[in-house]
Amino acid sequence: MGMKQAAIIIGAGDATGGAIARRFARGGFAAICVRRTEEAVLPLVESIRAAGLEAEAAGCDARDEDQMIALFDRVEREAGPVGAMIFNIGANVHFPITDTTARIYRKVWEMAAFAGFLAGREAARVMLPRKTGTIIFTGATASMRGGAGFSAFAGAKFALRALAQSMARELGPQGIHVAHSVIDGAIDTAFIRKNFPDRYKLKDEDGILDPEAIAEAYWMLHNQPRTAWTHELDLRPWIEKF
Q1: pTM listed for this prediction
Q2: Nearest CA to 168 among 158, 160, 179, 157?
């Protein structure tokens, strides 16, 4: 097959998702950068192409089954066989339990858990006939413990972790590496810089997660030999309590 392999990054935002897309593009993949609208991802795609690498923009509501099926079909047809799928949708919200509306809870679950299921299922569908591929789900501290005010987020992230475990046990013996990362700590993003300036000051002493370093860990997961696969990887700054 003359085509490059494709890496689909769902939630290819300005920080972690963008860094993952760049890393897989540098590794020889066509990076398929997915956000809800194509416009949102065009600057990232242009920056990857400017480096002489391959990238495509895709607008897709990850909560919509038909759109997700169509996305994977289109990538397989036009860009190349999907060799990696990284699910990186954030959906982090914080509300006291009595302020958590049904709409908030459902939306967070749809974004972080249901969309992860759709993405994982569709990745499995195209990878299984080839018996190879990497599927990585981005988790958080809330994947492991539910903090005060994080009922919606923790519920969704626990569900995503359960999905990753079930898929790993089913797909691992079929040659597909399924991994779940626990990102524990603030990431170097515009959001953290603006909303948590005290936390952001810790950047000067390597106290917040560098998206490029997270991307390097994901690339390592993809390249692991199947004699020694990691299922769960936790990443945190050296000063983070845990």
Answers
A1: 0.96
A2: 179
